[in-house]
Amino acid sequence: MADILSIGAGATQLYRQALSTVGNNIANLNTEGYSRQISETSENAPSQQGTVFVGSGARLDNIERAYDEFAEASLRDSSSKLTTQQPLIDYANRVVDIMGSEASGLSSAMDKFFATANALSADPASINLRSDFLRDADGMTARFRELSGQLDAVEIETRENINTQVATLNSLSDKLAFVNRQLNKKLTLDSQPPMLLDQRDQLLREMSSVTKIHVAESTSGQVQVRLGSSAGSLIADHKVPYDLGAAFDSSDPGRVDLIIEPYGDRRAASAVSSGMLGGLLNFRTQTLAPAMDSFDYLAQTLVAEVNQIHSAGLDGRGDPGTDLFAIDPAFDISAGVDNSAISLQVQVTDPEAFDYSPFRVTWVSEQNSWRIDDIDSGASTLATPGHSSFEYAGLSLSVDAMPRDGESFVVSPLTRPASGIRMIQTDPLAVATGETMRVMSDLSNLGVATLGLEHAVADDNAGFAAGKTLQSLGNNPSAAAGEAVTASYLAPAYVIPKGTTQAALMMEVPYGSDLSFQVMTADGVHVLGSSLDSASRATMLAGDAGFNGTSSYSDSYLNATGADAYMDLPLTYGFLASEVERKDWQVSTVGITDTYTTTTLAASAISDAVRLQNNASSVAIDLISADALLLNGTSLGSLSLAAGDTSSAATMAAWLNSASAATGVSATASTSIELEASSIDFTQQLNINGVTIGGGSLLTSVDDLAAAINSASNTTNVIAIVNGDDQLRLTNAAGHEGDNITLGNPVVSSSTNALGQPNKMYSGKLAMQGSEDIRFTFGAAGVPADLAVLGLRTGIYAEGPLTEDLAVFVTGTGSASVAAGFGDSDNAAVASSLLQPFTINFSSANEYSISDDTTGTVVATRSYSFGDDIVHNGLVVEIDGNPLAGDRFAVDSNKDGIGDNGNMLRIAGLQDKQVLADGRTFSEAYITLVGTVGGKAALAMMSKDAIQVVYDQAVASRDQVSGVSLDEEAAELIRFQQAYQASAQIIQVASKLFDSILSIR
Amino acid sequence: MKVSTSQMFERATTQMVSQQSKVSDMQAQLASGKQMVRPSDNPEQGALIQRLTTALNRQDVYAGNLETVSARMGSEESALTSSENIMQRIREIAVQGNSETLSGDDRIILAKEVSALRNELVSLSNTRDVSGNYVFAGSMTNTRPFAENGVGEIAYQGDQTQVMVDVSDQRQLVLNRPGNEAFTSVIRETDGISERVNFFAVIDDFTAALKANDSAGLQVSLAEVSDLTQNLALAIADVGSRLGVVDSQADILADTRLRYQSLLSGAEDLDYASAITQLTSEIMSLEAGQSSFAKISQLSLFDYIR
User: Fold this and answer.
1) Are residues B128 and B222 in the same domain?
2) Per the domain annotation, does B71 fall within a domain?
């Protein structure tokens, strides 16, 4: 009987299973990720009895898992989005709380610093206020360091958090791979155990809160997970998981690289921008790194500005101020091996020697010392033996315990201004409150005028840049390197910039030319040159040269030397050869040592070929007039040329030597003609000084030629020398040094001779030696052409450092070749010249002169109209009133002015200076920094609230499908219980029916 | 829409917890009296408060500077006033000394008095303020401005720098008066040549003229002493007007401070009335949430199944 019993039995079994399913649902009410299971019943196949189909009950078809994959997917999605916001909110709020609070933020410390600066400016002499200023400045640097430390702590925390998230993701993908392998055992989704699928979904949900994932489900229920989107990196496929790793850059907190399989086949991961991981990465890149950069920039700018002002002032002792703040480098020390038990400390001992290159230190126990490897260059050095402390590149490093062999550390120095800022000054009297210079009216002045002193904003002599600088000629004094320049009164040919040392400018002046140098200062003081008529003076000063418009010409210092010179500068116009110091380094058994002896070599000079001049007249003429030239200060007599004579080097040498007792300069003359053997023309004949060489026959070799010349030397007084390089040199015979040599050819029509040289007279050169310097200067009637007679170029020489720009004019007619030489620039000399005291003297109500107090030089004479400012040496003197003739005003050092507050006012004024990006002041920039972080947090909170709604909706819709409701289960429980009872009743009835059949006898 | 049991519990607890945190935030606000418990509550407001605090601190600094200026000018004024009184007396003596009826001995007695008064003037010119700075020395505040050289002449040793002090964002005031502007000099013409004679030299010359019975010199001295007295009076007037400026600046400063303080208070301080009202409503909604949860969570079908 198909069959009441079997129907009943089947039904009870069915409902018992249904009840246990419901019981399972109720039991798993609080299980995380549990999906409600529904028992699906289906009718058994009916049995056919004749034409009637009798049903045969029901069976449990399947226990189905209530699951909506779209609801799951949208839940995962919104979960990723929601968790993205949380790290930003938490950490950004933390940063804002620390940096924006009154007690721990920077604003209050900066306010205090500027407040004490202002209070100090009201009473700069007070030691108490100075100590307060130093204390509050120190407090401000301490606050910078603390806040920087807090930001570092946030950086470390986010880094740890990222590592944790990555580890979580890795362990989840491991578990997912395990589940995938379990799912592999069945072929279709329907046949998979629900518990496994629940587990799988739970893992996916947890992964999506770490980062957004893309899930691809196969028919068997196995999943393939990618980062972010369908094109992202694979982190789990059907069989294996792929680990994720994160790499950080200590110098750039915003940079985090995600790597797939960091310990295997490393490759870059696709971008992660959502989930907890994405939120942390975003926070670091978009909020933390810019905040740290802005904070560092703020610290750096503050240090630079304060130091610049402070160093330009005068402290309580009258000394120039030094830096107030310094920035120490920060060191990122990472241990080379894990679980290293010792720690390394690094400190800067010598900031000059320290460079910023990273290095590794390794302990080498067999050498009992540390080995230091520079990471960039690869260079290796061994430190002095000893494990506890050692030095390297201006740093002092120390460890706290004995290291193991091979233990190493990598030290990377970073510039982190906010963490390295500190105070250098501790002495209250070293606070530079005062101005460096002050101006005072002489108390006996008759006029009534009050004065103010400011620093000039622009360079007062910028106009002089119109000339080419000396340095543009190149540092090559030889005549061959000369550049052509045309004479002009209108504009300077060159300008020698201030600070130049050992300046020399030399010009080749042809005989008889009127070319000359003129050297002027910006205020029209004629320092070197020849005297000018008033028309020329006016032209020079009025031109575009950039002279000070109110200055008038002065020749008081023209060519003056020694104590009379302009500003006592060692200037020479003429010719100068100086003695040279030579350092001889001592050599010892080890090698070259650091000690040396100095040898002074006497000055020496060799001229070019001297002027050949023939006196065709019947009276003696003067080649050089008397007193035209001075040698080492001694006026030389005239150099005369008798009638019919020709000038020669010998006569000139004799002329110079006649004064050598007074000048200390001795001269020798020599004439020589040098040529290569290859230029000898053996087809020609040769006359020397009128004597035919070789007796008219042609010579064949150099040696023969030389022998022939030498055999005639008694008459010619010329000898020939052949040296090993086949060079032939003709020179004077002994006793005739410096005489002219005339080359000729007995064949009159020929213009050259056997030597291949033109037929003419050759003059000699002068070689001079001086016991000290060799200095030619010009007398009243001397001109550069006179030096040209001696074969010397005319030059201007400045031996010491120049403290102001000098303009060099080339005047006269025509053009010349000019070469230059110079030494290094001495900026220290220029800087100290700006602190030199000077006096302003009014010679009348409309004219004043400025004289330098140290040297007594009158540096400028200028016209004055009411209300003009007087500008000199980088200072501007403002006159309010009417100065009268005889009034004097002195500008000198403010050494005793301890009550002067000019510099401190400037430091206090930094509070309002718009010196940072976008024209912000310091406190504005800080407020903006904190505000930006806070704004991002607020934005994240708004996003979070919005996404929360979506998330809640997604949770609700998932729960609607898969969640367990007790009431629903209770109803099901009753339903199945009643069905079970009814089915049991069927068995009862079937049993009764069978009993009634059995009872038939 | 079906709501699973666990979802129902979770939702209720989440809402109650968030309501609780709102209540505790309000409580923190009320306890601290500030609108913002932490700067992260409202970053823009925080920035505004920071700016106002900075501005207020600056006003305090300016107030301090004004007090310094005022104290300094006070010492100046008192020194100058005393000096003026002495100069009035010297002028009287000069008038007296010029009278024909006096004898040489009388003049010598007057000379002694002038000498004593001159020494008082010297000590007045070297006045120091409460911090020990010389008031009339310009910026050389540690140097005695009027000191005697070897031959008993007094010369001005200080400088002529005027020290400026910030008293508001836009305004600076001069703190000091250099000694040569307070104790001025005169121009004396002798034989067509003009030269400057300093303050104490005038008085010393007067004393010498008295002792020497030099009537021409006494006439010159009378004119010069009158000049000096008048200049002192002008200086006192100037100090007076500067003190007036200080007072008016102090008033402006007080107004500015008040304005900033009220702005700061508006941005920072809690409005108790509205806060307490809000707290009450939050507490009410928390209570409602709690009691409704208590009731609803009791409902279960299992209670009705025997």
Assistant:
1) yes
2) yes
Burial A385-398 (b: 16+ CB within 10 A, else e): eebeebebbebebe
Closest Cα of chain A to B108: distance in Å? 30
A29 lies within 8 A of chain B by CB: yes
User: pLDDT at position A32, please?
Assistant: 86
pLDDT tens digit sequence for B63-100: 999 998 999 999 999 999 999 999 999 999 999 888 88
Distance, in Å, from the CA atom of B55 to the CA atom of B50, rounded to the nearest integer, reads 9
Tens of pLDDT along A64-86?
899 998 999 999 999 999 999 99
Cα distances (Å, whole numbers) of residue A866 to A455, A870, A879, B5, B11: 21, 11, 9, 96, 87
pTM: 0.81
Q: What number of residues does chain A have?
A: 1001
Q: What does the H/E/C string look like for B234-288?
A: HHHHHHHHHHHHHHHHHHHHHHHHHHHHHHHHHHHECCHHHHHHHHHHHHHHHHH
Q: pLDDT of A252-275, one tens digit each?
A: 888 888 989 888 888 888 888 889
Full domain range(s) for residue B290: 271-306
Tally of domains in chain B = 2
Q: What is the mean pLDDT of residues A786-801?
A: 86
- Residue B111 falls within a domain, yes or no? yes
Q: Which residues of B touch A30 (CB under 8 A)?
A: 6
- Is A955 at the interface with chain B, CB within 8 A? yes
pLDDT tens digits for A453-471? Answer: 888 776 655 666 566 788 8
Q: Which of B211, B209, B203 is nearest to B104 (CA)?
A: B211
- Residue A408 and residue A371: Cα distance in Å, rounded? 9
Contact yes or no for A450/A880 (Cβ under 8 A): yes
Identity of the amino acid at B66 = L
Which helix (H) or strand (E) segment holds residue B182: the answer is: helix B179-182
Contact between chains at A107 and B2 (C-beta distance less than 8 A)? no
Q: How far is CA A123 from the centre of its chain?
A: 39
Asked, for residue B1, whether it belongs to a domain, the answer is: no
Per-residue tokens: A994: 């069978």
Of A101, A898, A923, the CB nearest to B54: A923
Whether residues B240 and B183 fall in one domain = yes
C-alpha to C-alpha distance for A129 and A431, rounded to whole angstroms: 10
Query: Do residues B245 and B300 both lie within one domain?
Result: no
Sheet holding A213-217, edge to edge: A213-217, A223-227, A234-236
Domain shared by B162 and B71, yes or no? yes
Distance CA A827, CA A174 (A): 69
Q: What is the ipTM of this complex?
A: 0.90
Q: Do both B208 and B283 map to the same domain?
A: no
Strands of the sheet with A437-441, listed across from one edge? A437-441, A888-893, A838-844, A847-852, A858-863
Tell whether B146 and B289 lie within a shared domain. Answer: no
Task: Give the C-alpha separation, A683 to A696, whole Å.
Answer: 12
Q: In chain B, which ranges are E strands?
A: 146-148, 154-156, 164-166, 172-174, 186-190, 193-197
B169 and B275, same domain (yes or no): no
CA distance B124 to chain A (A): 20
**What would the pLDDT profile of B171-193 be if each residue is shown by its tens digit?**
888 888 898 888 888 888 888 88
Residue B20 lies in a domain: no
Radius of gyration of chain B, Cα coordinates, nearest whole angstrom: 39
Tell me if A899 and B187 make a contact (CB, 8 A cut-off). no
